[in-house]
Request: fold
Amino acid sequence: TVEKHSDDENNGKMNSISVDFSALKKENPDVKAWLYSEKTPINYPVVQGEDNSRYLTQMYNLEWNGCGAIFIDYRCEKPFEDFNTIIYGHRMKDNSMFGSFGEYREQKYFDSHDTMLLATPDRSYRVELFSVVTVPRDSELYRRGFDNESERQTYLDKIDALSEVKSDVRVT
Reply:
């Protein structure tokens, strides 16, 4: 069960979600989070397997489905605690899963959907989107590890420079 909560400070936008992780983890211990974006199709559990193949064709409840699941790169050792957590999902033509991501290339859509909510068993995050970048499968932007703060900032600056939309969010 997912409950959504809003407040007046955010102009009625959702500011948190409550997720019954104990029930989800009984169904599948690979469940790590829940991702939600108001007024979009994005409202899914997020799993992490032992490789990046399992959830390409398996839903979070372990049933076979060609749509697969939303999942974290298996190489992310501490999802949402590390500097960069990579989340994958199919971009479906019916806009399910991450199908609506293509719409984020339009400034108006981006401005209307610039926040997502991410809940883990330990914390809830209000995620402010700051860039939209379309990257090929072999892009260096899939990088997870960085040696120092300077490398991390260079990475963020590159993402910002490549963005297909403008945002007032500044990330350091």
Remarks:
- DSSP finds three helices and eight strands in the chain.
- The chain has a mean pLDDT of 87.
- The radius of gyration is 16 Å.
- The first helix runs from residue 21 to 27.
